[in-house]
Design goal:
Layout (H helix, E strand, L loop, with lengths): L5 E6 L11 H4 L4 E14 L4 E5 L5 E10 H12 L4 E9 L4 E8 L16 H21 L1
Antiparallel strand pairs: 1-4, 2-3, 2-4, 2-5, 5-6
């Protein structure tokens, strides 16, 4: 259980380790707890993913952190730039434990406007997408 003014946060996209908005750069005191999962659909918005929570859908991969209220407010400001809001969700850690925590969601699910990310892992998907784009560029340059 977090202490007063401490919160759990599930991150699944650009706030994950090694990503452009890595949480460690935004909230230095954030404590990584575990690789974690939530049920839903993960969509590709191009520059970042978004989640539509659905208890009947497949698992989405992310990370679970504990951080202070003031850091959470700073991340709120960043997420509002892409019109995401903070909401509560139940996530599961790698050992199967359940954690009520915060997650950032779009105002409404994108549904048919964007493609679903197969496998539910933004980092893996982004790396594969970038590799394919680089290969495609190399083929065009060679031709």
């Amino acid at each position: 259980m977090p202490q007063r003014n401490q919160h759990y946060l599930f991150v699944y996209g650009s706030l994950r380790r090694g990503e452009p908005n890595e949480i460690a750069g935004l909230a230095r005191e954030a404590v990584f707890i575990s690789r974690a999962f939530v049920r839903g659909r993960l969509y590709d918005l191009g520059h970042c993913p978004c989640v539509a929570l659905d208890p009947l859908a497949s698992w989405i991969t992310g990370e679970l952190y504990m951080l202070a209220s003031d850091s959470l407010e700073g991340i709120d400001r960043l997420e509002r730039e892409v019109d995401f809001h903070r909401s509560q969700a139940l996530v599961h850690d790698a050992a199967g434990g359940a954690w009520p925590c915060w997650i950032y969601l779009p105002p409404s699910p994108p549904m048919h406007r964007h493609s679903i990310i197969p496998g539910g892992d933004w980092v893996r998907y982004r790396k594969i997408r970038e590799r394919r784009q680089a290969e495609s560029t190399a083929v065009r340059v060679a031709a």
